[in-house]
Amino acid sequence: MPWSPNTWKTRYVLNYKGLKYKTEWVEYPDIAGVCQKLGAPPTEKKPDGQPHYTLPMIYDPTTKKAVVDSWDIARYLDDAYPDTPRVFPAGTVALQAAFHDFVWGTLGEPVFMNVIARTCASLPPRSEEYFRATREAAFGAKLEALATEARWVQTEAAFGTLKGYLEKNGEGKEMLIAGEPGKITYSDIQVAAILVWARIVHGVDSAEWKRLASMHEGKWGRFLEQFSKYEAADT
């Protein structure tokens, strides 16, 4: 079952657009080799200057192009397949870039801290070892020590801020960024990716997922339900 919020962003975009694709499942230690094989560039450099390869990555056999980073992939798919629904409607790129910073800073950070240990435990052995070693080196702490009640307080406050943003669309239009039922933007997809990550890793029947989904009168469980039709692993 896919869990990564980053790859979920690309999966949601592909499914929303109705584009056919095949998933290649990759263990963490193998990501660099797969990307290099397909000619995908690194997304950034490691502290020691070495290239750092990450997922998601897509290879489009039509254009013979490899694209990395969920934002760049979404932009590419909008441009390469203009007859599909756009996730970056005209005139929204700069605004969605600003929203991206909110999502992966204010909104995503406390969720990340509360779910990272459970994420690690759900991985196959090779990936689990790699994930734990790299993340614990980065944070200087055991992953299990990162989940705290204070993070839950931050999570509720952050989603409360998002709730306020959505309510500015007006009554009956507060479930998506664009304010129109069914009109999904990349910004909506970013929020859904965080939520589906928590649901999958914690488990749909877990106390943790129920706590997150029920915040603000159950708004975030309902928000994610809008994306259920776009959760197929392959199309």
From TrEMBL:
This is GST N-terminal domain-containing protein. Gene3D superfamilies: 1.20.1050.10, Glutaredoxin. PROSITE patterns: GST_NTER (PS50404). Residues 1-85 form the GST N-terminal domain. It comes from the Eukaryota. It holds the Pfam family GST_N_2. InterPro entries: Glutathione_S-Trfase_N, GST_UstS-like_C, Thioredoxin-like_sf. Signal peptide: none annotated. It comes from Phlebiopsis gigantea (strain 11061_1 CR5-6).
